[in-house]
């Protein structure tokens, strides 16, 4: 793009933006002032009418109570009042009980002299509401009952009975909630209006009074202002274009020399002293050269910082085949990744060998206890049964031997359950938990969802899952004060899932000093290439462990 054209675009864009912002600000300010004035005026009209209606109702009620003529001025064939209303004194909205649903407000008084019922002359309220001074061509004030039906004649639907018009607008809803306010929203016709509203409460009578005027009528001056602003904006913009054309002639000559000079400097020659021909050139190449140099250096610096922080997965691409700095950084990154992977594999392999050696030793000790000490104790039991004559001593000695045999079995099973090799981890955990339930009051629920046949869980994974579960249960029983424990072991096509829950006191992962138990659990998950998620909230401590299926 030619520099002259670019300057023209920039200058005129800025001018257009400033003009647009000023026009919008003026328009918005005028609009806000107009809105406030309209709503303030409507609020004054509404308040006046509300005060007039409340004064009318109260004065009519006082006149009614002071009357000595006890009779009914209602037509009982048109107004069917229930006894629940007749028996209570006060001002009521009888509209719903009128046969023709004509708006009816009445008074009821019960005393020793009898019952007196009077209907207020609706024309008195109508006269107040129809006074439309200051409300323009589309303004109106109206009443809405507690059943969200209109109680005053709509000026837009003069032939409709008010009760047949449902008014459940934002203003009516807010007013019945005790919120008096103002705003702009759709009225009962679905037309956007400025509206103010409040609740009238006199005796047992509750109605909402609203004063409204159509938005279209109010915003007519705004539309005229918008047209004038558009015309003024266009005129100023045309003038700005003419001025910018004149100014660009004084700007382009110095910039063309700067462009050629920067191009030579980008090639590494900082000592050039050539005189440049003054003609019309483009500025794009100058900015491209500077931008590329800056981007290249910034990318190299950022990538170097990432490597220094061992963030070896940061993305970086050399700018070209001649970018020696970028290639050197990539080679260094690849070497560090290789070194870290080798170190990580060596560390995990060492842990795995250590754990496997420990489990092998436990398996050997378990077998020696079961196959070595076990038969001796069984022989001792037979000897006591056959050789000891004193029945009391025989019973005591047999009990001691039986307890010892049970303890040896428990120790052997804890070291390495024999069922883990024969029946798998699912059955082993079931047996372990069932035996544990006999010695604790904590409720332990276990769900085995592993495949009973053709399971893909390896012996290595089974042993680690068993040790992890042992450690979790031990922590819950000793430290968590838990009353309920739930365990689920699931086997899927691609991974094995162990879910553990207790309702104990939990712990703060960020501040608690993790004991050897948690460390051992994490290390066993790591050597199985798995993942662990811990939630240690009080009453909801969970461990979610996933191990990949090793095919």
Automatic annotation (TrEMBL):
It comes from the Bacteria. GO terms for molecular function: ATP binding; phosphorelay sensor kinase activity; protein dimerization activity. It is an enzyme of class 2 (transferase). It catalyses: ATP + protein L-histidine = ADP + protein N-phospho-L-histidine. GO terms for cellular component: membrane. InterPro entries: HAMP_dom, HATPase_C_sf, HATPase_dom, His_kinase_dom, Sensor_HK_TwoCompSys, Sig_transdc_His_kin_sub3_dim/P. Residues 364-551 form the Histidine kinase domain. It is found in: Membrane. Gene3D superfamilies: 1.20.5.1930, 6.10.340.10, Histidine kinase-like ATPase, C-terminal domain. Keywords: ATP-binding, Kinase, Membrane, Nucleotide-binding, Phosphoprotein, Transferase, Transmembrane, Transmembrane helix, Two-component regulatory system. Its main location: membrane. Residues 249-302 form the HAMP domain. Its EC number is 2.7.13.3. Pfam families: HATPase_c (PF02518), HisKA_3 (PF07730). The keyword Transcription does not apply. The chain crosses the membrane at residues 6-27, 229-251. This is histidine kinase.
